[in-house]
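Worked problem 6 (solution included).
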Amino acid sequence: MRMYISAYGSADEFSADHVFMSNLNNKKVLLMGLGILGGGVATARFLVEKGAILTVTDMKDEKFLAPSIAKLTDLKHRITFVLGEHREQDFLDNEIIVINPDVSIANKFVQFAIKNGKQIENELTLFYEFCPSRKIVAVTGTRGKTTTTNWVSYFLSQHDSNTVLAGNSTDNPFLASILKCDDNSFVAMEVPSYQLELLGEKNDLYAPRVALITNIYQDHLARHGSMEEYTKTKANIFKSQSNSDTLILNKDNKWTKFLLGLKPESKVEFFSKDMTFDYLDRASFVEKWGEHNLLNLYAAILAVKTMGVDIETIKKSIPNLPQIKFREEKLFDDGKLQIYNDTAATSPEATVAALERFDPQNSNVLLISGGTDRELEFNDWAKIVGEKLNPENLILLSGSATEKMKKALNWTKYNEFETLDECLKAAQKRAAELKSGTKILFSPSSKSFEKFKNEYDRGEKFNELVGQIK
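Solution. The predicted structure is:
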């Protein structure tokens, strides 16, 4: 029996034994959640191409989902769409329910399906079940997982070109990446907590060769209920590992002790800020990438060494590490002003890390921040911002999280605007008043749903605005 322990402590048994799917031919499958980020499209296409009789249901209507539907035009005659609603009958009529990452296992329709003996899957479980390779490095964590996964993939690709990046950003959905895999592929995959919810059972199929947790910080509490449950969900990444597998943890993170208390069976290795490698010029790396990325680098090095990448390959590859889109990404530099897009900073800790990298006390840094609240605390953020920034150099984009930021800062006056365009123009105006060498850092510290579709949409909008600067 499959079991899911909810964020609120209740246990729900999946009332049907899990059936591993050597093929999906003529299986009636319901995809719950199409979305617009690309994962839903890749999943729908994968299921149809595997022979499933597919129904797609989404609470969003056809107009909202038009970009995704357009990408499935060639398959529309093989897909039944139920949009703008979910219907219980669809959950009864289908054998397998595949849920989008934004759909919680606690969703009433998912619970209805479970109680009626339906098999529940998501993109990650399908990837594990159908991926022909077991040479997998799986990366999760609150911060740094995208950068770490990209760097793991980069190192592996320098060792063996048959390397696949999966689940990492909207460009690499799990079930699009799987088409690139063969028996000998190295796989580097980024796994958010939402994808890990279904991996609560112990099963060898769900065991990556290397599981890596970059860190655990406050996040997604509306979904998981508490930090303990959030961390347990993250821990599902190593739950199925054996003593022949490796788990890599952050020695400096306070939740590592909790993770060890869950008694992983895998071999455990640690990375920390105190590590040194003879072949790494630490000072130069930190100057270019920041101290927080040093930890991401150390984690990536440990992972790829475990996978057989030699030291010489790692050493030669470090100078050419790729810049990750939307992660402190430099967009503009005219010799006087630099502009960075850090839209992926959806937590206070991520923005603090960016501020520590750019160090406003030693250079002119203008911070554009603010967005949508998701039950995060901003007291530590406010302390760092208050210490490092002149109030004139903080520009806020209005939103529910922004109200919490202002309350935590407790200043008498704020530069707050309703649109991103206004924020950037205010930052440019302030930059003109300062000496050359000024940096504008767009690092929201929060989600984006009040004004944008998601953080990627927010990032693209910011890129467009910066692109208009002459």
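Discussion: The chain has a mean pLDDT of 92.
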